[in-house]
Amino acid sequence: MKRTVLAAIAAIVCLCTLAGCGTMKTQWRETRKLYREYINTDPSIDFSDQGISDKGLQRLAALMMPVDERLLAMLRTLGSQDSAPDPEWAQQLLSANAWLSGIAVVDASGATVGQVPSTPMRPLDYASLLDMADRYKVRKMGARVVSDEMGTVVMIAMPFFKENEWAGLVVVNFDPRNLVRFSPDPNALVVVSTEGLLWAGGAGQGESLAALKWNDILKGEVQGDIRSGGGEYVWQARYLGQLELVYLTDAREVRAAKPEPKKEAAPAPAPDKALPSTEPLPQPADLTAP
Please, what are the domains in the chain? Predict the structure, then answer.
C-alpha cells in the first residue's frame, strides 16, 4: 500500500513537472530577451558622432579647460576639510596649487586663527564672507570677488565645524591672473562673474561683458551665445560657491574659418612577401631500406 501511494505521488509530480516545463522554458526565453534588450545590451560605438561640432564651443573648451580643471581640483581638496586644518595641511594645499595667494583660518567671529603665508602680501577683510552663515551651517561654500587699486582677488570659503556646529572658515584667495595664465591663449579668454570682472582678456571687451545682466541671463541657461561690442561671444558658466563664473571667447574668427580639406587616406602598404624558409628540406626516403 505504501509503495502504491509513493508511486502515485511520484507520478503526479512528474506530470506537473512535464506540464510546467514548456511554460518555464518560454518564460526563461522571454526573460533573457528582455535582459539583453534593456539591461545588458550589447555595447556599440557610433563612429558618425563627431562630438561638439560648433567651432566656437571647441575654441572655448580649449581655452578654459586648463584653467577650470585646476580650480575644480583645488575645490575638491578644500571641500574635504570640515575641521580646522593644521599649518601643514594649509602649506600642502598652497604648494600643490602655486597659483593660490594664501590660505587663512578664520573663526565665526571673524578673527584670524592662522594663515599661510604668515605675513600676507595683501591684507583681506573676511566680513563679506561671514555674512553667509546660513550657507555654512549646511556645509556649503561661499565666495566673494573683491576689486580695488591693488587689483582683483577671489576669496573662497569652506566652513569647518566643532562638535557638528559651524565654528569658522577655511579661506583661500587668489589673483585671477595667476590662474588664467594656464590657458593656451589668455588674451582670447574673458572671465566674469555675477560679482564682477575677473579677467578682461586682450580685446578690451571685459568691462562691457561684465556689465551685462548675468543674474538674469543665468536664470535659465548655463551656456550660450551673446553679442557685445561687435563680438559674437560663446560662453559657459559654472558655480563657485553662491556666485557663478562665466568663461567667454569671441567665436567670430573660428566660425568664419573654412574647414580644412579632408586628407586623403594613405595607400595601404603592400602585403609582406613571404621570405624563403630556413627550414632544412626533408630527406628523400631510403628506397634501399628493407
Answer: 72-175 (3.30.450.20), 179-256 (3.40.1840)
